[in-house]
Amino acid sequence: MPQTPVYFYSSASGLVRRFATHLERPVFDLADPAVRNSEADGPWVLLTPSYKAGSSHNDTLPKAVLVFLASPVNRRRMVGVIGSGNRNFGVHYQAAARQIAARSGRPMLFEFELSGTPEDVACCREILSDLDAALTARHARPQRAASEQGDPEQAPPEQATPEQAPPEQATPEQATPEQTAPEQGGPGEERR
Q1: Where does this protein have compositionally biased stretches of type Low complexity (predicted)?
Q2: What is the pTM for the complete model shown?
């Protein structure tokens, strides 16, 4: 079964990177300019830290995440968000990840603190495996229907395309600009 890749950003502390590398699936580091300036070739999940110290001047998303999400193709193909945060931020815990999820109409798949625990990693792996199965099943149904009708050219490609977004998720055509692009903020410093 194809695995949905995770695109992540981690500051020099490496906390998010540590979590991402334990997910046992393709992961791409948005700190790498080649990754940050690329387009995802199918469904993908964002893993981002949240930075919030309680000041509207300090409520920032990582610049690398903003650059990657500036691409309409990347926004359209994102199927969920995973957030890392610090409970010391109180009501602002996971604020950036939740903001991206809300504005894009995509679900928050999982939240963890700092670099997560082994239990967090296991739970997130299970959630991502369920997502993989759901995406595979969703694409298999139209393929089966087309093959039952004897028309193999009607079968969709095995890799998901933006036009195949689940109906419960807003597509860029259905969403307002505020829902599809996170606010532009300055680069954040990971405070852990």
Answers
A1: 152-184
A2: 0.72
